[in-house]
Amino acid sequence: MGRNSEWEIADRATVERRANSFGAQAAVYDEHRPDYPIAAVRWALEPVAESGGVSVLDIGAGTGKLTGVLLAAGAGVTAVEPDAEMRGALEQRYPGVSALAGTAESIPLPDDSVDAVLAGQAFHWFDLGRAIPEMVRVLRPGGVVAALWNGHDDSVEWVAELDRLSRSSVSTQRWNSDGLPEHPLLFPFERKEFPHSQVRTAESLTATIGTYSHTVVIPETERAELLDRILDFLKSRPETGGGEFELPMRTRVIRAVAR
Question: CA–CA separation, 143 vs 18, rounded Å?
């Protein structure tokens, strides 16, 4: 990997603990986490779109939030997810999709088997020094690696305040910088952002934040205090206290073509 601090893991133990924290939250995660804008998915797949009938590996697929948008975009999808509970939720929602146990560092697919490898809200958990060669291995020539993240649009004042109040003792800004990963097997990554939103209530947005890894792994007392603080804030704001509202979001996408 290139010497880019955003993508180097300073505390692997904490990262592993957070990365493996989602299974117990699978049902809530599936109910409350947002999907992705189809425009963002189409941009990610643009380098291979001309091939027609694009086959995509959704790596770290979770409960299938990205899988559903890939299907809507007309892609053929194979999902790989290490957590059995998350994978079970995906299989229930998308019974026609092959959902396999595996990780980005050990992908259970043969060489040259897909046109694209996409990761939704998962790329930052990977050991990229091992994962990128695995992704390139399963890609056909000229294939694309892409990653998507949904984030709150903190240019909106109340959203920025919410994010400040939502920080826990294990929160990190590691994944929010403008840096891009580098690897000799890939041409340089490109980045683009897309507007997105999700209809929420104070209660459902609090539940959504309760599925974030930095709120799942903390002690129960801290977690309860944090979620109470978020709910009180949302109920107190005119933008969010009166029932349903639109949560302003931005979807960040990075993509790179295999050399």
Answer: 30
Q: Is the Cβ–Cβ distance between 108 and 100 less than 8 Å?
A: yes
Q: Model confidence over 118-145: pLDDT tens digits?
A: 999 999 989 999 999 999 999 999 999 9
Which candidate, 245, 28, 24, 35, places its Cα nearest to that of 120? 35
| 132 SS3 class | helix
List of residues 6+ apart from 54 with CB closer than 8 A: 45, 48, 74, 75, 76, 115, 116
> Looking up tokens 């944090």, which residue turns up?
226
pLDDT tens, position by position, 77-123: 999 999 999 999 999 999 999 999 999 999 999 999 999 999 999 99
First-to-last CA distance in the chain? Answer: 15
Q: Strands (DSSP E) along the chain, which ranges?
A: 55-59, 76-80, 98-100, 114-120, 139-152, 190-200, 245-257
Nearest to 214 by CA among 161, 174, 251: 174
pTM here is 0.84
Structure tokens at 256: 């790179």
